[in-house]
Design goal:
Layout: E1 4-9, H1 16-30, E2 36-41, H2 47-54, E3 59-63, H3 80-85, E4 90-93, H4 96-101, H5 106-118, E5 122-127, H6 131-135, H7 139-150, E6 163-166, H8 180-197, H9 200-205, E7 207-211, H10 216-223, E8 230-233, H11 240-251
Bound molecules: 1,3-dihydroxyacetonephosphate (13P).
Length: 253
């Protein structure tokens, strides 16, 4: 049985004070281990301060990105080792904003995923189609391409604990949410591809999150579908109230 995971991607939001307030509010309400895994991904600069708040609680910490080389001359980048030392056990890779705005290609995402696993970090690998790709019936092909490129260097053993996030680009930050049928169909497709790439054990064990305008009022329906194992939440993770409401919605599924 896959444990539900609700992860909050704060993106390039929060000042230091808001980050600490969010983290401590969350620890207050979800700090004890429960039936749902809870994770937050603050901006790099607040990771260590947030780690001090969530350390020792059930709230897990992730980075939103990292560079795939060992520490060295890469001005402006953050190494996976640094992310781990700052208190993260997971890194989000291949987010569509990275792909669209910062040049993260399929191939680069694959290198990052491999480096993250070698550094002992968990990975949330994001995949998702644009509106144009959906309208021209390319959704499944795009998801397959992004998934397989992301996992290019990952064998069955390294795939253990991997999390995939299906985030349709057209649903991110737009208020447009995938229908539960659209989400379920994409997730089932991704799980089938995982079974083909590895085997049914890996496919059955891999959690596939939905992301894209998840809110307290649509979370339960989305996570109620058999192949939707949780949510990657953007905007609604920036308030303790709405993020906790989504976590509570997940508890009932
Ligand atoms: P929103 O929940 O703001 O649509 O963002 C989704 C997302 O990109 C999470 O990674």
């Amino acid at each position: 049985m896959r444990r539900v995971l609700v992860a909050g991607n704060w993106k390039m939001n929060t000042g230091r004070e808001q980050a600490l307030e969010l983290a401590s509010g969350l620890v207050e309400q979800c700090g004890e281990p429960g039936t749902v895994d809870v994770m937050i991904a603050p901006p790099f600069v607040w990771l260590e301060a947030v780690a001090a708040v969530v350390g020792g609680t059930a709230v897990q910490l992730a980075a939103q990105n990292a560079w795939c080389e060992a520490p060295g001359a890469f001005t402006g980048e953050v190494a996976l080792e640094m992310v781990a030392e700052a208190g993260c056990d997971t890194v989000i890779l291949g987010h569509s904003e990275r792909r669209q705005l910062f040049g993260d290609t399929d191939e680069l995402v694959g290198r990052k995923v491999a480096a993250a696993r070698l550094a002992g970090l968990g990975v949330i690998l994001c995949v998702g189609e644009t509106r144009e790709q959906r309208e021209s019936d390319e959704t499944d092909a795009v998801l397959t391409r992004q998934l397989l490129a992301g996992l290019e260097a990952i064998d069955g053993e390294m795939a253990a604990g991997l999390v995939v996030a299906y985030e349709p680009v057209w649903a991110i930050g737009t208020g447009l949410v995938a229908t539960t049928d659209q989400a379920e169909s994409a997730h089932a497709h991704l799980r089938k591809e995982l079974a083909l790439r590895y085997n049914s054990d890996v496919a059955d064990a891999t959690r596939i999150l939905y992301g894209g305008s998840v809110k307290p009022d649509n979370a339960a329906d989305l996570m109620g579908r058999p192949n939707v194992d949780g949510a990657l939440v953007g905007g609604a993770s920036l308030s303790v109230e709405s993020f906790v409401a989504i976590i509570k919605a997940a508890t009932g599924v």
